[in-house]
Design a protein that fits this description.
CATH superfamily of the largest domain: Enolase-like C-terminal domain
Strand content: 15-25%
Number of strands: 15
Bound molecules: magnesium ion
Number of domains: 2
Structural class: alpha/beta
Helix content: 25-40%
CATH architecture of the largest domain: Alpha-Beta Barrel
CATH topology of the largest domain: TIM Barrel
């Protein structure tokens, strides 16, 4: 088996600003496996928030490369060795999981994941933090999408929402990205947002403040969804009964296989589920989209926020996800000359 690490800088259409910082590009590594005429692709959309860097991703991918090149049959025994790669490096493990699953399912003429129930896959579209006049322009650009996810967690939160509301009456979801520090102020803000057509609040306060989240949830008119507070399946028990729901991402879970297990477990624990993403190209987004029918809320817009996606896979048409028609494996194709 030939394994190649391919690096690519993804460029954001707009500077991507959250409560914790701003960026205009992402340097990612792709994991490419080739064997017996089939090619599998995986993506590591690492995030500094979770202690990941290009260097840490590379170390883990090199380790997986060594295993697969020494024994190509290891691609069929992922569950035996993938969980033993560093726990903290979930995005790198996700890249390996997605690439190997892509290869195995193509080689055995199967779709990337077993069929999920058929339903319309309406995704929210994210609007990063910006000056109110720019927010209005971004909302106009997002006219194709039925639901917007607005990033808050700043001193200008009310100005941002007022700007959004001048441009649209669409349903909104709000992601504070840990930005609210005081629970009384957070509650006041949630009450204010509830009166303005907001459906849910994601990660209102910093991680680990479950007592404050419980206090808020007893009083909040809107569902509270954990994002930074949830990484892997081991976090679910702790959050059940504290939050209303969790945001499952392949890059936090360590791939499509563990993300599917998380969605299942969350449901049995009475938690609603959002299927989310990082800034990702169509590799990560397409892998996640196979799980989208199983989630209560879909937020798979990472590839829509970049201007140089090297792949074509799941697309978004009129705000709804359309999975690739080439349905063996991941079904993603490289754009000509898009990769080094
Ligand atoms: Mg979030």
């Amino acid at each position: 088996m030939k394994v190649t690490l391919v690096s690519k800088t993804l460029k954001l259409k707009h500077a991507w600003t959250l409560a914790r910082g701003s960026t205009t590009s992402k340097d990612y590594l792709y994991f490419k496996v080739e064997h017996q005429g089939f090619t599998g692709w995986g993506e590591a959309a690492h995030n500094a928030r979770y202690g990941e860097s290009p260097e840490s991703v590379k170390t883990v991918l090199e380790e997986a490369k060594t295993i697969l090149e020494a024994d190509p049959e290891a691609v069929h025994r992922l569950q035996e060795w993938l969980p033993s790669l560093p726990q903290a490096q979930a995005a790198a493990r996700a890249a390996v999981d997605i690439a190997c699953r892509d290869w195995v399912t193509q080689a055995s003429s199967k779709p990337f994941l077993p069929a999920a129930p058929d339903r319309e896959l309406v995704t929210s579209f994210s609007v990063g933090i910006d000056a109110p006049e720019r927010i209005r322009a971004k909302v106009s650009e997002a006219s194709a999408y039925h639901v917007l996810k607005i990033k808050l967690g700043t001193k200008q939160d009310q100005d941002i929402i007022s700007a959004v509301r001048k441009a649209t009456d669409k349903p909104l979801r709000v992601d504070a990205n840990e930005g609210w520090r005081d629970r009384e102020e957070a509650l006041q803000m949630i009450d204010w947002l509830a009166a303005r057509g907001v459906e849910l609040i994601e990660q209102p306060m910093p991680t680990g403040q479950l007592e404050n989240i419980s206090w808020l949830r007893e009083r909040s008119p809107l569902p509270l969804v954990a994002d930074e507070d949830i990484c892997g399946i081991e976090d679910i028990n702790r959050l059940a009964g504290v939050y209303d729901g969790i945001n499952v991402k392949l890059m936090k879970a360590g791939g499509a296989t563990p993300a599917a297990a998380m969605l299942e477990k969350a449901r049995t624990q009475g938690l609603k589920t959002m299927l989310g993403c990082m800034i990702e190209s169509s590799i990560g987004i397409t892998a996640a989209s196979f799980l989208a029918p199983k989630a209560d809320w879909i937020d798979l817009d990472g590839n829509l926020l970049i201007s140089n996606d090297p792949f074509i896979g799941t697309t978004c048409q009129e705000g709804k996800l359309v999975l690739p028609t080439r349905r063996l494996g991941l079904g993603v194709e490289e754009k000509p000359d898009a990769l080094p």
